[in-house]
Design goal:
alpha+beta
Length: 393
């Protein structure tokens, strides 16, 4: 294990302080909620576990992985959110469940720990078997499955882009243990094709910045196609000196989205622009090493009034990516078996120009952005949210 050794913006000591801020929020059972007393979801929990490993906080990362193992359900899923050890929302989000493969492969690249890889393999196998079972005939992955076992027939571009990467990481782990399921290979190819060639299969979410850049992070678009994708809506989302908007029509920049866009830029060779974005969002840093979730720049106020663990984690992952660490290797497909590296020179114009958007790798609480829509009531059915959910102050 090692701390992040270098970064274009933050010194190693600053990144370790940020990892320590994440660990301070971890609950006794190993869960990492969004903020003290908040809810835990599998995707953000795993993102934080990766950040803890990069910060050298091995014990906290181990506790996070132990929590994940204990809470996996018989069908391979996790509930969408937990509070204080109890399930808050019991349906399964496909992207959240798939992300265990990404985090497991990240840890393997960082540690080379074969005992961990062998131990986590059954967890990954059950999770990705579930994901493959949630695939539509036309290749997209349905975004959620209810506790009754019925899928919600809507596909989300961000979630599916992230799931594409998770499937590739899962197959890399499978190759490591010499057990690649053929169904996973077919599912990955079909999902990649849907993302590149069939934007009509995904719910339109044009407001959300994540929908714009996640096809690049997930590996559906790279090289010239990825650069074209990121150029296409730059002026809609990027606020010079502050970061990027969560949604195009609100004066609200958010730290995690800014860092994820930085990762996407680095993956297509735009590393100078990436480093500037990470520098620009440092106005969200708190003196204790944590990060405010966002800044409402019309009202000049932090909103929501929380320092989210997943924002801090995104900073660490972006710093490691830009520094050429294992996170860069994980996104670029280092050590993946032949054929799993992602597109080589595809044009991807169906996705790059369609203006389609989707949603998010975070749970659908339907909380409003500033001046946004009213929150959902307890009687509302689960619905695909457009951005990372936030609790209003």
């Amino acid at each position: 294990m090692r701390p992040v050794e270098s970064a274009p913006v933050l010194a190693p000591e600053a990144l370790i302080a940020t990892a320590t801020a994440i660990a301070a929020v971890q609950e006794p059972d190993g869960a990492i909620p969004w903020y003290p007393g908040g809810h835990t979801d599998p995707w953000d929990h795993l993102e934080c576990a990766m950040a803890l490993d990069l910060g050298g906080l091995v014990g906290a990362a181990d506790a996070a992985w132990a929590w994940l193992r204990r809470n996996q359900r018989a069908d391979g899923s996790w509930a969408t959110s937990y509070v204080a050890g109890a399930i808050k929302e019991d349906f399964a989000d496909s992207n959240q469940c798939a992300y265990v493969a990404t985090a497991a492969w990240h840890r393997w690249l960082l540690t080379g720990d074969r005992a961990f890889a062998a131990g986590i393999w059954p967890v990954v196998r059950r999770a990705l078997d579930l994901i493959v079972d949630m695939q539509a005939p036309s290749g997209q992955i349905w975004w959620a499955r209810g506790s009754d076992g019925v899928d919600y027939p809507e596909a989300l571009l961000t979630g599916c882009s992230s799931t594409l990467h998770s499937l590739r990481c899962g197959m890399a782990l499978a190759a490591l243990v010499d057990e690649v399921p053929p169904a996973w290979e077919r599912a990955t190819g079909a999902l990649h094709h849907a993302l590149v060639a069939h934007p009509e299969h995904f719910a339109p979410r044009d407001r959300w910045s994540m929908d714009w850049y996640y096809p690049v992070i997930g590996g559906a678009l790279r090289r010239s196609a990825g650069r074209a994708r990121l150029a296409s809506r730059w002026d809609d989302f990027v606020v010079d000196g502050l970061g990027i908007r969560c949604v195009a029509d609100e004066p609200w920049v958010t730290g995690a989205e800014t860092c994820e866009l930085a990762i996407a830029l680095h993956l297509v060779g735009e590393s100078t622009a990436a480093a500037k974005l990470v520098a620009d969002m440092q106005h969200l840093r708190h003196g204790g090493g944590g990060y405010w979730t966002g800044w409402q720049f019309a009202d000049r106020t932090f909103w929501p009034v929380e320092q989210s663990t997943w924002t801090a984690a995104a900073v660490i992952l972006a710093a490691d990516t830009l520094a050429g660490g294992v996170t860069e290797a994980m996104f670029l497909g280092a050590d993946l078996p032949t054929g799993l590296h992602g597109p080589e020179g595809i044009d991807g114009q169906a996705v790059a120009t369609a203006g389609r958007s989707q949603g998010e790798p975070r749970p659908p609480d339907q909380r409003p952005a500033p001046d946004g829509d009213p929150p959902a009531t307890d009687s509302d059915p689960p619905a695909a949210c457009g951005c990372r959910s936030v609790d209003a102050a």
